[in-house]
Amino acid sequence: MALPVAVLHILVTLADGDSHGYAIMQDVAARTDGTLRLGPGTLYGSIKRMLHDGLIEELDDRPAAGRDDARRRYYRITPRGRKAARAEIARLEKLVRQARATGLVVKHG
Amino acid sequence: MDRLYRALLRLYPAEFRDAYGREMAQMVRDRTAREPRARLWIDLLRDLLRTAPKEHASVLLTDVRYAVRLIRRAPMFTAAVVGTVALAIAANTAIFSVVNAVLLRPLPFAEPGRLVQISEKNDALGLPNFGASVLNFLSWRERTRSVDALSAIGFASFTLSGLGEPEQLSGNRVSPSLMPLLGLAPVAGRAFSAEEELPGAPSVAMIGEGLWARRFGRDPAAIGRTVTLNGLPVTIVGVAPAALNLISGGEVYVPLTIDPSKEIRLNHVIFVAGRLKPHVTMQQAQAEFDTIAQGIAAAYPEMRDWSVRLITFFDTFVSAQLKTGLLVLLGAVAFVLLIACANIANLLLSRSTSRQREIAVRVAMGATQGRVLRQLLVEAVALSAIGGAIGIVAAVWAVRAINASLPPNLLPVPVVHVDAIVLAFAVGLTLVAGLIFGVAPACYTAKTDVHDMLKNTARTAGGGSRARVRNGLAAAELALATLLLVGAGLLLESFLNLQRVRLGFEPRGLLTFQLAPPTARYPLADKAPGLYRALLESLRATPGVGSAAVSSGIPFGQGNYTTSPLQTSGPSALPAGAAVPIDWRIVSTGYFKTMGIPLLRGRDFSDAEDGGGGAPSVAIVSQATARKFWGDMDPIGRSLHRTADPRPFTIVGVVGDVRSTTLNQESPSIYYPLSTRAWPLMDVVVRAEAPPEALLPALRQRVHDIDGELPLATVRTMDEWLSASAAQPRLSATLLSAFAFVAVLIAAIGIYGVIAYSVNQRTREIGLRMALGARPGGVMRLIVKEGMIVAASGIGAGLAAASLLGRAIASLVYAVPVDHPPTFAGVGVVLAVVAFAACVIPARRAARLDPMDALRCD
Fold first, then answer.
1. CB contact under 8 A, B26 and A22
2. For each successive 10 residues of chain B (858 residues), what is the average pLDDT?
3. Per-residue pLDDT, A63
4. Residues B11-32 pLDDT 10s
5. Cβ atoms within 10 A of the Cβ of B105, count?
6. Helix (H, G, I), strand (E, B), or coil: what is residue A30?
7. A41 Cα to chain B: minimum distance (Å)
8. Which residue in chain B is spatially nearest to A73 when comparing CA positions?
9. How many H helices and E strands in chain B?
């Protein structure tokens, strides 16, 4: 089953380290050159479902004070989340290979 | 900015908002600082519109999943609820499809709302809606400025021959402007042209779609073919769509040719229709026709009492009685649904007690009261939806059965469809039903006090008011059931009255068929009477035939029912010159004997009068006619003449009165002998000494022997005619009785449920009473009394409502006052007995309780 785009991006961001909502949104926007800005509803809707499915978890202990606002809720990717992200990326890679084989996509460089 | 977004957050479900609202608002604050405001808002709104419905859907889906789990866990309960809903929704949907087809769907013509029937009326004669005469039609067509495309339809029957087995068909003479007036186009070929209305135009005909399919297999080559109609060659020029048949009832159409020199202004034989011009209202058109009618009356003295009445097409085709009947049935099924809802609500209420602990756990785990309420409503609607789906499928079958079994011509539409409107109605009703029966129990359950529940002391929490709600619902069920049962009782009483009506003739053993000898070969004034005389002679000699006769219209048949105003010239019980509308028939000798109509005075027609030729003009009147004109004077030897024609008829006999068109009224009649002239379509009636069906082949052979080209049409026994005439009252009475039965059954289950539940709840109290010395009889009385108080209030309210609502069915009942005391008393007693039985069962259980067990019971 394909993961929704927002979910995959959130997993990729969290794979880099624990983060909170606004930082996740900024990170995704930076990695996509601003083309994908997750709105609050999309972001927290995804987070809700990811928590439910066990792809991520909410942290009880906050990162050191001073680094960021302690009131924010931080999220961490779970092993299950890593596995799901890897599977999804492998699926996408396979799809890209197949697409290239058909000549639909030209290989760059 | 921040405030606005927080307000918008209310669009999300509460749980989601509670969980993430703060973070989402914080995120927007962060972004406001760094992003251009306009772009940010576009982003946010898009995000909101995309995700808010999604979150709601996901909550709903959770609720539905939860509901389905619960439904599967309680199969008996589910089956009871679903079955009740399915029954009620099926009945509502089926009845509504008929209402939709008859009352809501537009007639299949262009802009049917602007189509009007223009009829003549005569208040002095008590004729509110009479046919029009051809000459008046011509005057109207010439003078009106408010109505377009005035068209006439005449009624005729045709014998189609030259295509194998000859067939008798009903047909119409129509103005060429009729098809454009209705906005109908021929299915094949062409419609009539304006010139074809003129006398001397070539003989052309259109055939109905049904006939085209039946006799020509929809072959386009039928167009242009010459067939024989009533003995004359006629060219088929086109095929008329089925919709035309709706207003005319015919299968063959020929142009209505008009020769003014041969018409009489008082000969009211045609149906006239027209289309209101744009922006002209019914009132304006009526006012114009009033003026036109006054002008005609001034110019033609015979028209002085006649005026014109415009009637919308809807009112022409949908009788007030049919409309009332349908609405009463719709109301009845709606009541059944309400009773079902009340019953299910009670079921859910009693179940809510057992679910309180589960709810309390959910509340303790953080579910809000609104959330629990929503969950419970979703459960109710899910139950309703399953029932509704089954009900809709059942309704589709029911509608199919209705189409297959309804007597033709009972409804002014060919078929009843389950269309999008009906489906939307059924789905909407299902949802509303779920909310109705879900809301009260959900409110009570959701109000559960967590602390009490978890402490396990909540057994009586809210018990008092909940019991009141349960009792109220049970009483309401009984009230509605009472109302339905009174309605059904009145209709049933009325139907039985109709069955007991003295017909004035003896229907058993009568076999009837119709003959329409082509007038080209059998002119009405000489050859046709001769044909019938020969036929009757041959029929009477057939073994098994007791007697035989012909009539231009047997009672309850499809013959001619024309009424014509008559007056007398001699001494009379009426003011001089007053006319009375009298039903007339042309009959052969032996008609009264064959029908079993008693000859009260004078004599029957003689063979000389039957045989044509120069016999004097005589007539026989019914007793009511004699009394109207001459009171107690002896009518024999007196004379009557038609208002339109001064030639007198001498009365030679008086016969008993006969119900002839509707069971609920007797009409004064006059009978003319067959010698005067025949009618184009005559009913032959045979009193069979053997079973009528067995006699038929012999009768057919006799007709064939005389003329092989003459088809026998509409062969029926008199019992079949009578049964068809009572179809509508029988159907209303049957359906309403069925609905009332279901209603009483559900209401009885309802009151049983309430009492049984109450006994269950009060086990400990009852045990205590018994331990303290109460006798079983006393306990039983206590329980029954409780139930009967509820029952009495419900039945009382129902009877009161019935006495108020009875007027609604006044037009449907015959010879029963709508406040008929025996019906009311009977219904009250029946329901009291049913309620009593429903209370006694749980009461006996209570009386048999062992006090020790009862006290130990948790």
1. yes
2. 83 86 87 85 89 88 83 81 90 92 88 93 84 92 93 88 81 92 92 88 90 90 90 91 81 90 85 94 95 93 89 88 88 91 86 75 76 85 93 93 79 84 94 90 72 53 70 90 90 86 88 86 84 91 91 82 80 82 90 94 82 72 92 90 85 91 78 84 90 86 88 86 83 86 86 82 83 85 88 93 86 83 91 89 83 70
3. 56
4. 888 888 888 888 888 888 888 8
5. 15
6. helix
7. 6
8. B23
9. 26, 23
Q: What is the least distance, in Å, from the CA of A12 to any CA of chain B?
A: 20
Q: Which residue of A has its CA nearest to B26?
A: A22
CB contact under 8 A, A40 and B24: yes
Task: For chain B, give every domain's residue range.
Answer: 2-73, 75-109+319-461, 126-304, 472-499+719-858, 519-708
Question: Across-strand partners of B640?
Answer: B568, B649
pLDDT in tens, A53-80: 999 998 876 655 555 555 678 999 999 9
List, in order of start, the domains of chain A with CATH numbers: 5-102 (1.10.10.10)
- Identify all chain A residues contacting B30, using CB atoms and an 8 Å cutoff: 22
Best of A7, A22, A56 to substitute, by most chain B Cβ atoms within 10 angstroms, is: A22
- Using the beta-carbon criterion (under 8 Å), do B44 and A40 form an inter-chain contact? yes
Give the tokens for residue A95: 């799809």
- Binding-site residues on chain B for chain A (CB distance < 8 A): 12, 16, 19-20, 23-24, 26-28, 30-31, 43-44, 46-48, 50-52, 54-55, 58
Distance CA B54, CA B423 (A): 27
Residue the block writes with tokens 């001034």: B298
Distance from the A98 Cα atom to the nearest Cα atom in chain B, whole angstroms:
32
The kind and range of the H/E element at B43 are helix B37-73
Q: Please name the residue that has the structure tokens 């003459």.
A: B710
Gyration radius from chain A CA atoms: 16
Closest CA to B319 of B661, B811, B814, B807: B811
Residue B6, CB-side half-sphere exposure with 13 Å CA sphere: 9
Residue-wise pLDDT tens digits, B235-248 = 999 999 988 887 77
Kindly list the residues from chain A whose CB atom is less than 8 angstroms away from the CB atom of residue B61.
none
> How far, in Å, CA of A80 to CA of B700, rounded?
90
ipTM: 0.83
Predicted local confidence at residue B170, as pLDDT: 85
Give B780's contacts (C-beta < 8 A, 6+ positions apart): B840, B843, B844, B846, B847
A42, A44, A49 ranked by CB distance to B23: nearest: A44
Minimal Cα–Cα distance from A20 to chain B, Å? 9
Q: Which amino acid is at B146?
A: S
Q: How far is B435 from chain A (nearest CA, A)?
A: 29
Interface test with B, best of A24, A44, A47, A59 (most B CBs within 10 A): A44
* Phi, psi for B518 (deg, rounded to 5): -55, 130
Can you tell me which residue has the tokens 């809720």? A73
Distances (CA, A) of B758 to B458, B471, B763, B773: 16, 10, 9, 21
> Phi and psi (nearest 5°) for B490?
-65, -45
**CA–CA gap between residue B832 and residue B791 (Å, rounded):** 7
> What is the distance, to the nearest Å, from the Cα of residue B166 to the centroid of all Cα atoms in its chain?
35
At residue A109 the predicted structure's pLDDT band, cuts being 50, 70 and 90, is very low
- By DSSP bridging, strand B682-688 and strand B713-717 are unpaired
Of B777, B830, B792, B736, nearest in space to B333 by CA: B736
Residue from the list A39, A49, A73 with its beta carbon closest to the beta carbon of B23: A73
Q: Which of B227, B253, B219, B236 is nearest to B161 (CA)?
A: B227
- The long-range contacts involving B32-36, CB below 8 angstroms and separated by at least 24 positions, are B32/B1, B32/B2
Candidates B26, B27, B55; nearest CB to A45: B55
Query: What is the reported pLDDT for A69?
Result: 58
How far is it, in rounded angstroms, from Cα B271 to Cα B151? 8
